[in-house]
Design brief:
Length: 204
């Protein structure tokens, strides 16, 4: 009899405990506007990439290098982007950032943009395939690529400082535009971003 009572009490305790830990779905998803600023961890994110790209290119394209080139050569300058290098203390999707910069330059209409060095393989492979298989009327010939007048490269560095539950994260992005023929730097731009991250201490 005592054994049955003990078993019943144990079963009731297990069920009660299980009831206390019943939870809803482990993951919830809420869609938001793509332009909405969302900061979760305090790390570099898409908002930072957009802000830096917009500020950098706005400054770059407002400088006289493009108009001077057009006045001298009679055409728009051609720019090639090299991947932005990540020299910060955290992972940054530099390809995403590089594409933001490339888009801003192209959409401005002030300069033309050619494929980056790591993007030329597909078109060149296609030309090789056409040389073997396409008709003479439609085949694309080699040595007809558009030469680059300027290369744009840059890097991101970071500096962190923390005390207690607060942390300051600072990012400095530097970009340089270099004349391919003369090696002259015609523009240097910098953009700073600083964030203060507050973390709540665990309470028991």
């Amino acid at each position: 009899m005592k054994t049955r009572i003990a078993a019943a009490l144990l079963f009731s305790a297990v069920m009660a405990t299980a009831g206390c830990y019943q939870q809803g779905p482990a993951t919830t998803v809420q869609r938001t506007n793509a332009n909405t600023q969302v900061d979760l961890s305090g790390n570099w994110n898409d908002t930072d990439a957009n802000q830096v790209a917009n500020a950098m290119i706005k400054d770059c394209l407002s400088r006289p290098w493009a108009s001077q080139f057009k006045q001298e050569k009679g055409r728009k300058p051609v720019v090639k982007l090299y991947p932005i290098r990540n020299r910060s203390s955290e992972h940054i999707n530099t390809k995403f950032f590089t594409k933001q910069v490339e888009r801003e330059i192209l959409n401005s209409g002030i300069a033309d943009v050619v494929a980056a060095s790591d993007e030329t393989g597909a078109a060149r492979a296609e030309r090789r395939d056409q040389a073997a298989n396409a008709s003479d009327k439609t085949v694309k010939s080699n040595q007809q690529e558009t030469g680059t007048d300027f290369v744009l490269n840059g890097w991101v560095i970071s500096s962190n400082d923390a005390a207690g539950g607060a942390e300051v994260r600072a990012y400095l992005t530097t970009m340089e535009l270099v004349n391919v023929q003369s090696q002259k730097k015609v523009w240097i731009g910098q953009k700073r971003i600083k964030k203060v991250v507050q973390r709540r201490s665990s309470q028991w």
